[in-house]
Amino acid sequence: MQFLKKIFFLAIILPIGIFALNYDVKFTGLKDRNTLQAIKRVSSLVILQKRPPKTINALRFRANSDEPEIQKVLHFFGFYDAKIDIDLEENKNNILVVNVLIMPGVRYTIKDVKIYTDCIDKKQMDIAGISIKDLDLKIGSSLITQNILNAEKKLIFLLSNKGYPLAKVEKRDVIIDQTHKNALVEWCVDTGSFSLFGDTKITGLKSIEKSYIDKKIKWIRGQKYDSRKVIETQQNLLKTNLFSSVAILHEDKVDQKDELEMNLKLVESLHRYISTGVSYATIDGFGVSLSWANRNFRSQGELLAIDANVAQRLILGVATYKKPDFLRVDQNYVIRSEASREK
């Protein structure tokens, strides 16, 4: 069997390695580091360099197939007039080098940004407090697609903070002006109905009282919808360590009172745990430890923990009780009792 494996290696694998056309890749002309790194991440010449082709023609095909992908990256970073020249040469060490010359040209900039609520009549959106600056865009800055996409996400987020959680972008246009080397960015937005917080439904509770959850909810029914209150509520619930999952959703449309029903979908984590351990210290000697805790004592998210350590020269016991939201939200009342005896 070992002999057959050797024959297979010599007959099949070895010739592939011998006849493979090893090469190097050299990019020149482009100085922007971020764009160059992005190009290398999509370049077949780079990605498949450890799997070299067998012939010159195959290498040329691989190199030429890179050009449209490189152009996409250049456009993504605002180089709309870029030109690419690819050629092959053999260096003094008899190694083939694929030279990729990138002539980026002028990087396009943002001429203006328009936000419409009517795609046909191009009616400008009139919602107080949302400006181009809030979208982290600046007139005259480089036209980078990722910045446009990020601005679009932030636009929807800002609208949801101002009572429009149903808002969505219907159309995005980036109108390139090759004469002036800039672009006009346009969004057409369907803001949806102005929304208020509605009734809140909670599912997934098993051992935690609903009254404890109510204290963590930051919105009040009838208030203007604000996604920041939703995020804060989710973070407050996760920080308790009582839940392995917290999902907060709303309905797809408002009711007759312009209210959106809220849905809290919770998955409780394990509340009780026991741990043991063995220790050694030069002062106390060998010892064993035992810990027990219930993070949902009395079903109100209260903590009761008992820790014991029995060593050759010391016995130590600690009991801890914590009541969350004591007198006011996010204020804890803690009692800690400790007892010890030296042998």
Please describe what this structure looks like.
- By secondary structure, this protein is an alpha+beta fold.
- The protein folds into four domains: 87 residues, membrane protein fhac (Ubiquitin-like (UB roll), Roll), CATH 3.10.20.310; 82 residues, Ubiquitin-like (UB roll); 73 residues, Roll (Ubiquitin-like (UB roll)); 71 residues.
- It has seven helices and 15 strands.
- The strands form four sheets. Strands 11-12-13-14-15 form a five-stranded antiparallel sheet, with no helix packed on it. The chain has a four-stranded mixed sheet with strand order 5-4-7-6, with helices on one face. The protein has a three-stranded mixed sheet with strand order 1-3-2, covered by helices on one side.
- Helix 2 crosses helix 4.
CATH class category label of the largest domain? Alpha Beta
- What can be said about the biggest beta sheet? 5 strands, antiparallel
Structural class, by secondary structure, is: alpha+beta
Say what the CATH topology of the largest domain is: Ubiquitin-like (UB roll)
Number of domains: 4
What portion of residues belong to β-strands?
A: 35-45%
Distance between the termini: 69 Å
Arithmetic mean of pLDDT:
88
Shape: flat
* CATH architecture level-2 label of the largest domain: Roll
Total number of beta strands: 15
Percent range of helical residues: 25-40%
CATH-assigned homologous superfamily of the largest domain: membrane protein fhac
Strand order of the largest sheet: 11-12-13-14-15
Give the uncertain stretches in residue-range form: 1-17
Tally of separate helices: 7
Rg over C-alpha atoms, rounded to the nearest angstrom:
32 Å
